[in-house]
Amino acid sequence: MSSVGEKRFGKLYKKRIWPSVCVLVFFAVACVATFAVFLYLFVMCIMGTKIVGHYEDAQQVSGILSALMDGGDTVEEAAAEMHDYILGDQDICVLDRDRKIVFLSGDSEPNFDIKLKFNVGRELTAVADSKNFLSANEGLRSIQAIPVREIMSRVLHPMEQGETRAQWMDAMVVRQDYWLKVPFGDNTYVLYVKCSLQAQRQDIVYVYLFGFGVMALLMIPVVLLFINTIRTALTQRKMSSLIYLDTVTGGRNWLYFQNYAHRILSRIRNNKKAFALVNLHLERYQNYRACYGVKAGDELLEAMSGFLSARVGKHESFARYEGADFGLLLRCEGENEQEYQENCRRRVRSLLAELTGLRPNQKIHFHAGIDLLPPYVDEEGKWYHRRQETDVEQIYTYANAARLESDGVEEQRITFFDHDMLGRQKWERWVEDNMERALQNGEFQVYLQPKYSPASGKLVGAEALVRWVSLSTGLITPSHFIPIFERTGFVTQLDDYMISRVAKLQAEWMIQGRKMIPISVNVSRAHFAQEGLAEHICELVDAYGPNHELIELEVTESAFFDDKEILVETVKQLKAYGFRVSMDDFGAGYSSLNSLKDIPLDVLKLDGEFFQGDEDGARRGEIVVREAIRLARDLDMCVVAEGIEKKEQVDFLARQGCDMIQGFYYARPMPVEDFEKKVEEDA
């Protein structure tokens, strides 16, 4: 999955789960708050109703007391008479203007240090009782000071023997005494009436029943939201499992591996640890699928996944990248980079050996590329900074680049990445990106290297060599781009370009009346796989009109090991069109004398390696060269020796009857203008 897809998935994940969670939490808090408020208001309503009743009773006491005083009684006489004959158990307290107690009934008195304010539609003033008051809080909130445990123990107290349910419900469980102040007379005296704020068992039961009812109603949407949130979370988890599932192996996929590996590498505590990111590649997997079937190929990948799952430890991970490529994040033990590398190599080699045995009756081979991530420290040697290089995709690309370096090398199974590899691959990428444009812009130039006759010392021929003169990087030698062209197939276009340029050059020399010099041009082995090559070359040359005999086509010796029948037929057609054909680099590989027997070649070009080496090697090389020249003579072939740099080599070849010599001893490859001057000087 691309990085854009990962971000979209992350947003989708957050959008799907977090709104439900937030709504659930908000609604749960709102329900609890609503329940508390409703319960509080309900209690206050009950208590407020009782206080209003007490105030009305106190007002009646005040009225009776005023009436008695209006009849001529003193305040003490009126209060005593009213208490004895009218109020019964209700206590009163009368204060004079100086706030001294004039009359007090009962065994308790007001505690004027604790004042209470009741707001029940009107503001009422009261004071606490000296004996029965549990809290210094003001107003109705004083009821909250009564311990809940005490209330519940009284509420849940079982009925006693002989007690009816009505009696049990009417039993008092909470009592709070206070003195309520009421207006009296002409403000000469102040009247306080003792009131008892009582809660019966039925009051508490009704409060709790109301609370439970409200809670039950509020819990319905909370439960529904909770169920919806759980379903959303389960759905999200299933979706995550599907997103992170590799449908081929049944294990975790590459997206999961990237996320998990990034978390592991980014942890500060892992800075002191070395890791390796491994590109594990099963060789010729498509061939395996073709031979044993697609299902068998998938089963092999599934078996590989199961094996790796058992071998990968904690804080390590693996996943299939694509095809038969797996990525592994492994811990590397050791004290320095050399030990990290050796231990990692040993472990990966063991994994490859065991993986090779997954199918005992089938040959399977693996290559591995490794990018080693040593412990991360900053310039001051501190460990607490996070790793800067945590781009898992890029690190895996480096590991893959290392593995690609070993492609085609059977004995090299494990390769570590280094930045030289990156430089080479960047160069290859640059070449591939610019070769088409360079061909269109004429950046490929023809250089000519003269061929001399050792007998006469005269210039008798030349080989056309290509040089890339880039507008951005300057002169590029063939060794830096020809192998890349051969791998990409672009070399066939370059062949056509060089043949056309040489044909054009020959035509210009003919028009200018210059001395005509035969020029040889390389034709890559990839070209001989194409049908109608002889006709194609003939069309390229005839577009400019030079004589075919002036152009020699060089075929590398390695081309003779491809489709020999096509090669023989193409060579015959080229000779029929009048072109000369030579075998280039004879002796550079495993020379086949059958090629000389079956293919009607005109020129045999000896590789310069024959003339290199120590004294013994040079002596043995001379023997081979002498016999090769004799063999070519017997087959009516001309002989050209290339790579000649010393006079004694020239003298030896002259004695053996070599027809032409090409090498630095005579001249290096040069631009066309310099070659034309040399031809004129030689004439």
Explain the layout of strands and helices.
Elements: H1 3-70, H2 75-87, E1 92-95, E2 101-104, E3 110-119, E4 123-129, H3 148-155, H4 165-170, E5 172-182, E6 190-200, H5 201-243, H6 254-266, E7 274-282, H7 285-292, H8 294-311, E8 317-322, E9 325-332, H9 337-356, E10 366-373, H10 392-405, E11 414-416, H11 419-440, E12 444-452, E13 459-470, E14 474-476, H12 482-488, H13 491-512, E15 519-523, H14 533-542, E16 551-556, H15 564-576, E17 580-586, H16 593-598, E18 603-606, H17 615-634, E19 638-642, H18 647-656, E20 660-662, E21 670-671, H19 672-682
Parallel strand pairs: 10-11, 13-15, 15-16, 16-17, 17-18, 18-19, 19-20
Antiparallel strand pairs: 1-2, 1-6, 3-4, 4-5, 5-6, 7-9, 7-10, 8-9, 12-13, 12-21, 13-14
Helix pairs in contact: 1-2, 1-5, 7-8, 13-14, 14-15
